Write the structure tokens for this entry.
Amino acid sequence: MSSMEGKVVLITGAGSGLGQNHAVLLADRGANVIVQDINSDGVKETMSLVSGNSAKSYAIVCDVRATDEFTNQINDAMRDLGNVDVLVNNAGISSRQRSIEEIDDEILAEMFDVNVKGAYVATKAVLGGMKEKNWGRIINTASIFGMAGTGAGSHYCSAKAALIGLTKAWAKELAPWNILVNAVAPGFIPTPMTNTPGKEAIRAERNKTIPLGHEGEPNDISHAVAYFASEESKYVTGQVLSPNGGIVI
Ligand SMILES: NC(=O)c1ccc[n+]([C@@H]2O[C@H](COP(=O)([O-])OP(=O)(O)OC[C@H]3O[C@@H](n4cnc5c(N)ncnc54)[C@H](O)[C@@H]3O)[C@@H](O)[C@H]2O)c1
């Protein structure tokens, strides 16, 4: 896999789980990493993990929904590190299982604001620089639930399906600037989002339904992100790569 040396990478929701793992892996490969999250302790933790590896790193604590604050902070980071070459739209929320009737306006709006609007906010903040360079990579984070649905969580499924739709649309819109847009759609990966205490029995039962017989690990997703961020994927755009152990094919 090619080096990420000289590239500036922004990862949203990088204070935990998959985003943190992406930050560490891309920093290991020489990227300058901008670590963004709403959770300041998480940002601190990730900064301490990347500081030894990353050529340069930069911390941003803010809400990915807060357009002006987010954009201002990214502009400050880009004045320091240079324009963002690779954006990983990773910040997301899930929720407990809910029926259609239980999903009220507020719950629905929050789900779409973080997962979908957040991707727009971050993308708009970095797009000008990518267009100027005629080079860019945008990697969105969908989910197997955005591909296959589930019986109780249509707000999460539809937000993740929206990310697949916008990946395809942005890929076509941004191709003239050599900006490639792809998505990862993780299967079951233990992270603070999914690894809730007391769920061990449910997870063990669920593993029996996964053709490979077990959950994935964060690196299974980070390697897909690293591929989309690299020169090796230069002819790949509008695609969804779903490391999921065969559960959704
Ligand atoms: N872990 C899985 O099995 C799995 C499966 C499919 C998809 N995903 C997706 O992968 C992404 C990462 O999930 P994870 O499992 O690492 O979860 P996580 O909860 O560990 O990480 C999500 C991060 O996003 C941050 N975040 C939440 N709202 C934010 C906001 N408004 N502004 C900025 N940051 C915000 C959180 O603080 C957290 O650090 C999410 O988009 C999730 O939907 C995860």
